[in-house]
Amino acid sequence: MKQFWNFSAGPSVLPKVVLQQAADEMLDWQGSGQSVMEMSHRGAEFTQICTEAEADLAKLLGVGEEWAVLFMQGGATAQNAILPMNLLDLKEAQTADYVLTGSWSNKAYKEAVGYGELRIAASSGDSRVIDGVEYKPWHWLPEFSEWRVNPEASYLHYCSNETIGGVEFADLPNKEQIGAENVPLVLDVSSHFLARDWDLNKVDMLYAGAQKNAGPAGITVIVIRRELLGKCRSVCPDVFNYQKVAEANSCFNTPPTYSIYIAGLVYKWLLAQGGLAAVEQKNKAKAQLLYDYVDSTDFYNNFVQPEHRSIMNVPFIIHDAALDAKFLAGAKEQGLLNLKGHKSVGGMRASIYNAMPIEGVEALVAYMKDFERQNG
Ligand SMILES: *Cc1c(COP(=O)(O)O)cnc(C)c1O
C-alpha cells in the first residue's frame, strides 16, 4: 500500500491506531450491539465514553477537581462570542484585554467587540526589526514583558499558536510578569492543544477546536476553572452557558457523540505514550528537523522570528514562487498531502500535529531536498 502523509492544517491527521480501533468497533461497540453513533447520549454506554474522555483529558493536562472539562459545539469560532457572554461580567468594569498576534486572535477580538469595551494589551500588527532582521506584521510576537494588562479587565485573551502565521508562544506567562495578578488568562490553544506539557496553574481557561490536534471536527474543548462559572449573561443561550454545560457533564443537549468518542481514543493514545512531556519531546524533534533544513538553504525560507516559530504549523516559501505549483504537484505524487499554504500567506505550510510521526517529516524533508536539487 502506498504511504501517505497528511500535512493538513485542519481537519487533520489522526493516529492510525485510533482510526483502526474506530473501524473495528464501528458496527458494534464493545459487544453493546450498537455503533457509538446509534447510542443514546443518556445511556450507560455513552455516559461511560464521555466520562472517560473527560477524565483522561483532565489526567493528560494534570488538572484536578477545581477545573471543569467541557465538550461543546460551534468550534473555536463560536467560543469567540461565547467567551465574552460568559466572562465579561466577572468584574464591575465589564471590559477585557486582548493580545493581537495574527489571524485568529484578531478574529476573536473582532467578535468580542460587540459585547463590551475591549483593550489591546499588546500587538504584533506592525513590522519590527529584531536583531537586525525586519519581520513583517504578525511574523513576530510581543514579549510578555511588553504586555500592558488592565488590572480591571475581566479576562485577558490571547491565541497561543497562530495556525496561519506559524507563530507560537512556547511558554505561558507568569501573571506578575505581565501585571495580571488578578486577571484570568484565557487562551485559544486550538492548533497546539495537547502538544506541550504546560503548568496550567498559570492560566484560567483554554479552548480548542478539536480538529486541529485533538480529535475530529465537531467538538470544541473548554478547560476552565470552576470559580469562573456562574457570571454568564442572561442573554446567552443555555447551551453556551459554561456553568449549565458543566452541570450537565457536557450533555446539556445532544452532544456530537461520535466526535467525543474519537477524541477520547486520542486521549488514551496520548496517555499510552507517556503523557504530554513525552509528546512535547517528539514534537520538538519533528519541528527541528524541518526548520533546520529550511534554514540550511536559501532555496526555502521561513519568515517567522526564530524564537517564536510554531512547532505545529510550519509555513515556508520557495525563493521563486513560480515553482510552488510544481512543488505541490510533485509532493502529492509522493503521497505528501495538503501542503499548500494559507491563501493569506501563500507558499507552503506543513502542519505536523501530534499524530504526524517523525517518519512523515523525514519524508517531507527528503522530498524538499530532492526538489531543490532538481530546481535549484
Ligand atoms: C482553526 C482555528 C480556529 C477556528 O476554529 P473552528 O473550529 O473552525 O471555529 C480558531 N482559532 C485557531 C487558533 C484555529 O487554529
From TrEMBL:
PROSITE patterns: AA_TRANSFER_CLASS_5. It holds the Pfam family Aminotran_5. Keywords: Amino-acid biosynthesis, Aminotransferase, Cytoplasm, Pyridoxal phosphate, Pyridoxine biosynthesis, Serine biosynthesis, Transferase. Its EC number is 2.6.1.52. Its main location: cytoplasm. Binds 1 pyridoxal phosphate per subunit. L-glutamate binds at R42. Pathway: Amino-acid biosynthesis; L-serine biosynthesis; L-serine from 3-phospho-D-glycerate: step 2/3; Cofactor biosynthesis; pyridoxine 5'-phosphate biosynthesis; pyridoxine 5'-phosphate from D-erythrose 4-phosphate: step 3/5. The modification N6-(pyridoxal phosphate)lysine is found at K212. Pyridoxal 5'-phosphate binds at A76, T77, W104, T163, D188, Q211, N253, T254. Gene3D superfamilies: Aspartate Aminotransferase, domain 1, Type I PLP-dependent aspartate aminotransferase-like (Major domain). One of its GO terms (biological process) is pyridoxine biosynthetic process. GO terms for molecular function: O-phospho-L-serine:2-oxoglutarate aminotransferase activity; pyridoxal phosphate binding. Belongs to the class-V pyridoxal-phosphate-dependent aminotransferase family. SerC subfamily. This is Phosphoserine aminotransferase.
